[in-house]
Amino acid sequence: MLAFLLVIAVTIVLQHSLIAATMLAGFFSLLMALVFVLLDAVDVAFAEAAVGAGITAMLLLGTLGLVGADERVTRRRPWLPLAVTFAAAAMLVYGTLDLPLLGDPQAPAYTHVAPYYLEFGAIETGVPNFVTAVLASYRGYDTLGELFVILTAGLGVLAMLGLRGAGSGSHAGGEGEISMTHHPILRVIAKLLIPFILLFALYVQFHGESGPGGGFQAGVLFAAAFILYAMVYGASNARRVVSAPMLYMLMAAGVLLYAGTGLASLWYGANFLDYGVFAGDFVSGQLVGIFLVELGVGIAVAATMITIYLAFAERRVE
Amino acid sequence: MIASHLPVLQVVMSLVAAPLCMVLHRGRPAWLLSVAVSWASLACAVALLLQVIDDGAVTYAFGGWAAPVGIEYRIDILNGFVLLIIAAISAVVVPYSLRSAADEIAPERLWLFYAVLNLLLAGLFGIAITGDLFNVFVFLEISSLASYALVSLGRDRRALTAAFRYLILGTLGATFILIGIGLLYAATGTLNMADIAVRVQGQLDSRTILAAFAFLTVGISLKAALFPLHSWLPGAYAYAPSAVTALLAATATKVAIYLLLRMVFLFGPDFIYEELPLSEVIVTLALLGVLSGSAAALLQTDVKRLLAYSSVAHVGYMLLGIGLGGMLGLGGGIVHLFNHAMAKGAVFLAVGCIVLRVGSSELASLQGIGRRMPWTMAAFVIAAFSLIGVPLTAGFIGKWYLVLAAMERGWWWVAAALLVAGALSVLYMWRVVEQAYFHEPHPANADAAEAPLSMLVPLWVLAAASVYFGIDTSLNAGLAARAAAVVLGIAP
After folding, report:
1. Which of A192, B107, B230, B385 has its CA 20 to 30 A from that of A209?
2. Which residue positions in chain B have pLDDT lower than 70?
3. What is the pTM assigned to this prediction?
4. Which of residues 214-233 of B touch A (CB under 8 A)?
5. Which tens digits make up the pLDDT trace of A204-226?
6. Cβ–Cβ below 8 Å for A138 and B112
7. Is the residue at B285 inside a domain?
8. Is there a contact between B63 and A92 if contact means CB atoms under 8 Å apart?
9. Number of folded domains that form chain B
10. Is residue B169 part of a domain?
């Protein structure tokens, strides 16, 4: 499988058709997700499949819709960058040569902090999926930071492209829009799939404590269902459901729910993001806190992804 | 009670201000909120630094989980000092930005500008304050993405290419840093920096640690614009909105340099200065940066670009301090962080005033501007003195320490190169002064009036600081010396 990854990576570099490169990149992500499954990291695999193979491919296609799908071929051979790349790769290989073997129980990564999470994660947080316990509680502040990274990315896209109906008004709407309503098969399949994707997203959102998944994956899935609708039925139809101000409010609401949960801990006299104080006993408090922050992640991620997609989809070549 | 939560408030105030700006959705309320937050952040940074001076390092455990299981904030003199620099600059630049940003950015995007500005500040605070290596990466991403977005908001369309270049190179740097963190985790099993510093000792000769060190150093050097990894900097600074340029020039590269200082702490000074030939490599690259930056500044026809190349040179000075090492070298580098922030902030604010009134930062359009905007140009000249390193200005102290540190090691060629660079900086600053004072006013600035008070006051605060901290050096040089002791592991 790793050899296959390498083959795909080389093909992407040599590929001149950007659409084919995008498809291959999605395939690469899917394979990568399978590698993660083999390594028993199902949560990571889930995120990789949803983001790498799903949303990223859609966003790249949206970009290609704006800039055209063919690479401008340059004659110049970039030997120096190539040499630098190989030097860095060689350094990386050199650095990993005396790493402990995969799965070696004596490796530092398995003997210091990790055993603590495995042993006490479920007991202290009441969450059977200890990945969720680490992400939402032990290292919950990093997750808050990651959520703000996504918000920053969304705001960055808005700063450059903007959304229709948000005041900028410089975009031609309506006619030039890409929609695939004239394909009956796509229309029917999309209609069939969307409710199930939404349902699955909700399941992933509220079941993240015990199984793989959580707010991040759920938010991406939710956005994927929406983007699928916007792709098949056109962005302007999708916009009847969500207006630009509403998307902004949802983005803000999601991150504020997470940060607000942290501030609520301060209010109860505990440290930032200490959920133990939210209920009578520590473990129930943890469950309340984890539920709230996961919900915040889900809302903010979904709203941001939809905003980014619409910002691309509504931008026509001028 | 609130005193024990100061570390988290330092970052979370700016963080939460961003979505609140989205909710406000209009320029002026978003600006008001940002000003309030930036002043509260300054108060917070001062209070934190006082706590650290009185009681030693302050720690804060997120979620109540003690490190290394949870994430902790850890403030000592070194990062307390860096926090103070960022907070002070933001408390000056954010009020300034009202008129400047309204002139340079479309009104319907002003709320976006302030939202992203707050994210940039939160990111910078977050990098400086944390004691957790992965947390560094998370906030590095926030601050980097925010700075790409802010650069792209510049009024010139070339701002987009500059932002794109910055994004590609910045992402490369971030990836290198992430690989370095991953390797360190594989070797030590922890992400807490104090914990890593203990656990790398005894395996410093392993390839994993060496590779981790290499990846981290290259990645951070890219972010700090160490020669020859500085090619993103001139474009980004030249085309970003004026307030953003002042903020980035005064704080962003400083935080990257702080991270390099932390690396010395992480791996131990013995590893950096004794076992690796790093001293020689960094000193050589830093000197090349100082000389090439100063020489390139001489050739520019745009003031913003000229000052951007001067920043490449000044980053070189700070890195030179790290390369020379020892109390004098590190102290000189650290004090220059502070002094350069004040002076470079001031000159970029002055250029922002000129852009507001003249509409251009071309050197030619500045002819005779000294008569049209006397207060602006006077502040520019004062800050330029500090950048050149004239005695009795703040900029002199850092350079003086660096010369002393070079002499101490017997590297007279370093001292000679510093003198040449000093002469070059006189020349490039003179080009601006000559245009401003020794020419008849250019038609482009015929109706240019003095800048509004809301911009002049922040500008003069920084210009005055550049002089004040050159005469009373107890605060900046005193703290820098104590911070250098922290880096070397002499003081806790």
Report:
1. A192
2. 1, 491-492
3. 0.93
4. 214-215
5. 888 877 777 788 889 999 998 88
6. no
7. yes
8. no
9. 1
10. no
